[in-house]
UniProtKB/TrEMBL annotation:
Segment forming the signal sequence: none
Keywords annotated in UniProt: Methyltransferase, RNA-binding, S-adenosyl-L-methionine, Transferase
Pfam family of the protein (one): RrnaAD
GO biological process: methylation
InterPro entries per the UniProt record, alphabetical: KsgA/Erm, SAM-dependent_MTases_sf
Gene Ontology molecular function terms on file: methyltransferase activity; RNA binding
CDD domains: AdoMet_MTases
Top-rank taxon: Bacteria
This protein's name: Phospholipid N-methyltransferase
Length: 175
């Protein structure tokens, strides 16, 4: 319940959600990495561990992530608080992956997470997230308020249960 997952994400979903991210993406932000299946796939796609920032609030997962990805930056915080953490000037993320169970969160919290993430991303960077629902888990009013657009990216049919991946991009500056 605390992880908002029916089952751990599988390899098919990890491959799909990370398909456009590699060593040329620059620094990569991962929100809610859990056990690190997406993180593992990012590393196998050429992203250096030192270019990864993993935001995970579950202490058990944080301990596991520190063992598995010792060179990654791991922040034990709520993803909505990312905007409060000092970041070196000009050190923006070229891509982001979100494994958080957004459907189980209040709209205001989802907005805080999206605002925090996009405040740390390059203007043309995309955030990839998955959902088990029929539409994007970021409500349309949040996308509109933040100047974002979501496009369906694909379906991981071999995931249990099948999951849809969305790519979220800026269409205008965040207010």
């Amino acid at each position: 319940m605390g992880t908002a997952a029916v089952a751990p994400s599988g390899r098919a979903l990890a491959s799909l959600i990370t398909r456009e991210i590699d060593q040329t993406s620059g620094k990569v932000l991962e929100l809610g990495p859990g056990t690190g299946i997406f993180t593992e796939r990012l590393v196998s796609r050429g992203v250096d561990q030192s270019d990864l920032t993993l935001v995970e609030q579950n202490p058990g997962f944080v301990r596991l992530l520190k063992q598995r990805f010792p060179r990654a930056t791991i922040l034990e915080i709520d993803a909505a608080a990312l905007g409060l953490i000092r970041q070196p000037r000009g050190d923006l993320f070229g891509a982001a992956v979100c494994g958080l169970g957004l459907r189980n969160m209040p709209v205001g919290h989802i907005e805080g997470i999206m605002r925090s993430a996009f405040s740390r991303m390059l203007p043309d960077a995309a955030l990839y997230l998955f959902t088990y629902g029929r539409r994007c888990s970021v409500p349309a009013e949040v996308l509109e308020r933040l100047g974002l657009a979501a496009e369906h990216f694909g379906i991981a049919l071999l995931n249990l249960p099948p999951a849809s991946v969305y790519r979220i991009v800026r269409v205008r500056n965040i207010q």
